[in-house]
Amino acid sequence: MSTPLFVDYNPAGYSIEELDRQYNARAAVPDSAHLIAQYAQASAQVRAQFGVHTGEPYGPHPDETLDIFPAAQPGAPVFVFIHGGYWRALSSSDSHFVTPAFLKAGATVVVVNYALAPAVSLDQITLQCRRALAWVHRHVARFNGDPARIHVCGHSAGGQLTGMLLAPDWPLQFGVSQPLLHSASAISGLFDLRPLMHTHINDWLNLTPQSAQANSPVFHVPSQPCPVVLACGGLETAEFRRQSLLYGQALQARGGQVDLLFPPQTNHFSVLFQLADPASSLFKAIARLMAL
C-alpha cells in the first residue's frame, strides 16, 4: 500500500510500531487479564441470581445465539449488548455482568453471541449481528420487551458492530422496517478500521482496503439518526479516543444527537464496569436515552 494512502488515516503520523502499540488494548493495561477474568466471575454470579434464557438461536451457525434476561413487566425497553474481544475472543457469557443495573431499572436485556475470527470474516460477523438484531425486533415481545424501544450497546469490537447496526438500509435485507433502533451506545469502539490493516490485529482479521471501508461505521452513518452515547476510557490510548471523536463528528454532521464521555481513571477494560454501576455517568447517560 502506498504511503500517501496510509497517511490519509494516520493523521498523527505514527510509525508502524507506534500505531500497533496504540491499538494493542491488552498490552496498554497491565492488569487486563485480571479484569477480563473479573468479567467471567461477575457474569457467573449474575446467572446464579437472575432468570436467563441462554443459547436462544437467531441463525443457523452454532455460535449465533442470544442470552435473554426478561424484564419483570411487558412493554419494557430493550438493552442489547455486543461484547468485544477484537472479534476473536470472549463470548456472550462473559458479558452477563452488565445486565443487573438495567434489569433493576426495568429493561429486558439481550446479550449477543457471534462467531469469531479468523474462522469467520468480519463481513460474516457483521451479518450475524444484523441477523441477531432483526430476530430481537421480531421476537423480544415474548420476553417482555418492546420492539419499538431497542437500545444497542457494544464494547470495543462490539462498538464497531454497533455502528454497523446503525448503518442505513440493511434491515430491508431481513424484511424489517426502518428505523430499527431507538438509541445506541458504543464504548471504546473502532469506527475506522483502515489503520488496523497495519497492526497485528490484521493477523486474524485479514482486512483489505475494501473490507476495511465496508465495515467501518464512519463510512456508513445512519440516514435517520437516533440518539447515541459514545464513551472511551479516560486512560485509553490517543487512537482509541480519536476513533470515538471521529465517529461522533460524523454522526453530528448528519444531524445526530451525540453524548461523548471519557470517564476519568478508566481504561479499555475497566470502563465497561460502569454499565453495572447505576451511579456512573455512563449508565446514567444510557438510562436517559432509554427513558429508564
Question: What does this entry look like structurally?
Answer:
The chain has 292 residues and is α/β, with parallel strands linked by helices. It has one domain: Alpha/Beta hydrolase fold, catalytic domain (Rossmann fold), CATH 3.40.50.1820. It is built from 10 helices and 8 strands. The protein has an 8-stranded mixed β-sheet with strand order 1-2-4-3-5-6-7-8, with helices on both faces. Strand 3, helix 4 and strand 4 form a beta-alpha-beta unit. The longest helix is centred in the N-terminal third of the chain and has 18 residues. The termini are far apart. The N terminus is likely disordered.
What is the topology?
Layout: H1 3-8, H2 16-22, H3 32-49, E1 53-57, E2 65-69, E3 76-82, H4 100-104, E4 108-112, H5 122-139, E5 145-155, H6 157-166, E6 183-187, H7 202-205, H8 209-214, E7 228-231, H9 238-253, E8 258-261, H10 281-290
Parallel strand pairs: 3-4, 3-5, 5-6, 6-7, 7-8
Antiparallel strand pairs: 1-2, 2-4
